[in-house]
Every structure is written in structure tokens, then in C-alpha cells.
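Sample intake sheet
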Amino acid sequence: MTDEIDDLLNEDPTLEDDADSSTTTTNEETSETDTSNTTSVVPETSVPSADGDLAEGEIGHVLASEEIMVGRDEYNVNAFITTTERNEIRVGDYVQIPYPNSNDELFAVTDKLRYEPYTDLDDKSDTHNHISRHQDLDESEFVLVAALDPIAILSPTQNGSLDRGIVNRIPKPNTPVSLSRDDEYLRTGLSIPDEGPFCGYLSVGGEEMVINGDKFPYYLSNPGIDPETGEPEPGEPAIFRHLLVAGSTGKGKTHFTKNLLRQFVDGKRYPIEHHETGEQLQGRLNIVILDPENEYWQMGEEPELDDETKQKLRRQGIKVGGVDDLEVFVPSIGNVPNPGTGTQQPFGIPFELVRSRPQLLMPYQPRETIRSALEMALDSYFDHADAEGETPTYTDFRSYVQTNEELQDDSEIASQTWSAMIRRIKEPTFENVFDHGMSSLTDLANDMFREGQVTVIPTSHLRGAKEHLTVLSILSYIIENKIDDHHVVDQIKNTPMLVAVDEAHNYFSSPDSLREQYIVRRAREAVKQGRKDKLGLMMITQNPEDIDDDILKQINTNIFLGLREEVVEKVPSIPRGFKRDIPKFGKGQAVVKAPDVESVEVIGLPDCVTKHE
């Protein structure tokens, strides 16, 4: 037995003389592998390439010994990766394959990597295990195969740019395969804009892609008014097609969101039509942030970044620094002290909002008789207040209902139903939320929703039912004034707006109560006509699976940071190919799925461009 082992150890492991026959073995083995919907890049081992034989960026060639196929529903292209370039290729890398007698190139992404033996290697024995302890296995006994997913065909135009077309031509056998390291080819192949709000750096496997010594910035498409011509730029702004930022605790969700929101504060103007006159207006964006953890007001302060870092970011079109035009408005609730945010303006939630939104008083599923009784009582009270010239308040409403015996008699509502209705309206939450503070939401509408301003509304001082009622009251006020056509606040209706809601799953989940049904129904309408009314919703959450399905389907830009595996399985909008990776993402690592752009991986900035603690 010892003699047999010695003989095996003395054998030449490279077996180069058998390269031709071993290639045949590889083809037979590969044909048994399921490579449907895959294009593969494989290193050539039968004729090893020296570094000097490869063009810059070249990593191999299209494999001729396996089927090459491109179809409407499936594809199969395998490419050989040379021995010297094996350490350069990663799953997720982008590659280019030229077409002969043409300037066109196939643009593809590496979908899989696999090793295939091309010798008569048999490592299924104890003898092999014993040998491997004495001698390293020679990697040249294997072929590295990279499976490619074709994305587009890129063609040069007469003006020197690139056109992006569908994949309807087959790559030729033995054609060189190169890593895509050209800015224009990457932007055109992936449809990434060359300007817009910065979202992160294009990355592969958690490593930023570097092109000509610089990281490759990923921008969202967000056209507005051309500052030179004053005419609307082509394309729909990403903000009015809505955004989702989803990530588990500890994955950098707030840091990422602050950096993204800061990019929308750029003075850009958007076309908007006056709701009464039809006049074509040009308005700057008003950003409203509903902040449950008292974090976003810090966006008004400078980050701890040195001047060199700031200048480097600005050269890439990244907005840096505290927001000059940022105001904090804090809802006043009962005797609860307001949170510390520096300069702030307190405001109250007026009971007047209930006039057209009786569902705000129904955080449950009432019987039809109780609902009818409550709506009748509200109508009667508001008519009474108007007749007396009084400002409606919750306290007066409760007193009016409890002391007005004629109201019950005239309504012919059963005493049992009437008593049940009164018990409902005596809920302490209503007393705590409505009509506090010197100024109300409606009084301050022109100040809160002013164009060009970032409006932060912290609710960290509230908890439970009080926070829920407060936030839903504010949201309903904004949404209805934005999407309705009559009896609206001009300042809200005629201003482009982005409303960012942190912990959005708490307010836009599948509804369990009449109040939630009401706000979700209005939110569904808002996301459907946001482009028309220039209203964008930005939902920030660690539980995207809890957001109402109809709302989620209308969100066009999705940013997924690290999420738990069980969450990933429940979110249908997560792009194919990334579901296994997202639970393993590090802090700031994300997948971006944007309109008309290939889904890609990005890395957010390591530093926050505004203050963030």
C-alpha cells in the first residue's frame, strides 16, 4: 500500500499532455448540468494563456465546446476564464463581449461561477485524502466557468454615444470576454443616469466598483425644470413615483435615508399646474419628514467631515452639509413635554379635521348602527358650532353630545346604541390629542408646507394610541389637500411635496380598523396619482412585508438594505438574484430597484453628509 501511495505522489498532477481529451470530458459533464437561462464564462485550460496574451480587462473567451444559445425566454452561453484571471472574477461582475465585424458588444452580468475538472481526477477515495495532506491540489486540473446573464446589446451612435438594445444576437464562439470597466458602457448597459440624487456607489459583493481610480456613483433619475431653458426635462422624477427604504435594525437605514433625503435638497424646480387656474407653475420641493425617533432634525446641522472629504464628495455631485432651510414643528399633546430639537414650533391637532374625516374617531370596526349614530352626532355638532360662530373643539363636542337629550330623541337612535356611542367618544386619547398648543396644524399650513423647505415633525414624545392618531391626522390632512380638487389648502395643493414616513409599517399596514381603512384607502389613491399631483411618498421601514400590498405595488424605487431571511421571503418586489444575499448584507450595503434601471447592488457613504448621532 505504501508503494502505491509513493507512486501516486510522484505522478504529474497537471496532466498537460491529456489536455485535449480532458476537454472532451468537460463538455460531456457540462452538458448534464442545468444551465438554462444562463450564459457562462469559462477559463480556457486546454491552451493556457500568459498575461501578455490578454488584452486589458480580458478574462477569457466564449466557450465553443458547449451549446451557445440566446432566445426570447432562455439563454445558454459559457465562457472560459483564463488561469491568470481567476482571482479577478466575481459573481455580479459585469462583462462585455464584442460581435465580430461590428462595433456592437453584448453586455452581461456574471450569474454563477463553477469549477469543472478536465483531467481524470478521482478524489473520492481515502488515497486522495492522504495525498492531499502531502501535496497541494493543482488548480490547473480544473476549469473555472462563469455563467453570464445577458442584459443588453450596446451599439455606438454617430454622435459618439451608446444605444442600448435588446439581446437578439448570439455571441460567437471563442470571442474574448472582458470585465466592463468603462463608465459609459456601465451606465448605458445598466440604464443608470449620469446625474441626479446620489444613492450610493455601484458595488459587487460588498466592494465598491472603481473606474479610472474613482468609485462609480449611482444616481436616481429625477428630472425637473431645465434651469437654462425653463422647460420641463424629459422623464418622470423618481420622487413622484415613490420610494421605499427597507432595512433591519443595525443595517444603517437612518444613515442611508438621511444621505438620500439630503440629495433632494438642491433647489430643483418641478412643473405643477395650479388647481384652479390651470396656470403652469414651477415649484421647489417641500420635504416633510415624520420622525418617530427624533433623529432627522439633525439634518439642519453640519456633519463632522473634513474639508478634503467634502470637496471630494461635491466633485461627484453629492450634496454635503446641513440643510439651511429646515424647520421643526412639534405636535403638542396634553401635558407631554416636547422633545429637544433646538429651535421648534409647537402646533396642535385641531378637532376641525374630524369634520370631513369622522373615521379618525373610529380606531375600531364599529357596528353600522354605532357608526351612523356617531356620524349623525358629528354633523349636528359642527352645524351647531357654525351657527354659533364657535371654533369646534373635542371638549365641546363631547359635552354637546352628553348633555343634549333632544339630539338623541330627534335621531330616534336606540338608547343602548346611543350609550355605546358615548362610551366610544370618551376615549382619553381624543382628549390628549385634539386642540392643544397656541397654534394648530391648519393655522401653520403655509409655514409648514412652504416650497424649498425641509419640515421635520418629531413624534418621539408620543406613544401608542396618541402617536397613531396624531400621525394619521397629519397624513390625512396632507394627502387629502394634495389629491382632492375642492376645498383644499392652496399652499399644499400647489407645492411639489415629498412626504417621508419613518416606521411606515405602523401607518400603512393592512387595515384592521375603520380609521386605518380610511388612511390606507387615501394612501392608495395618493400613490396612484402622485405623478399628476406632484406628491411623492417615501416609506422607511424594517417591516416592508407589513405595508399594504396595493401601496407597495405602486412604489417604483425600492432600496433594500440588510433584512431578515423571513422578511425577504415575504416581499415580492425584491429582485431575483439578490434574495439570498440581502440577509447577509453589511451596514450600508443595499440593492436598488429603480424604474427603467437594472437592479444593482450599491454601498452607501460611510459618513453621513449631515449631522447623525
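Comment: The radius of gyration is 31 Å. The CA atoms of residues 429 and 464 lie 10 Å apart.
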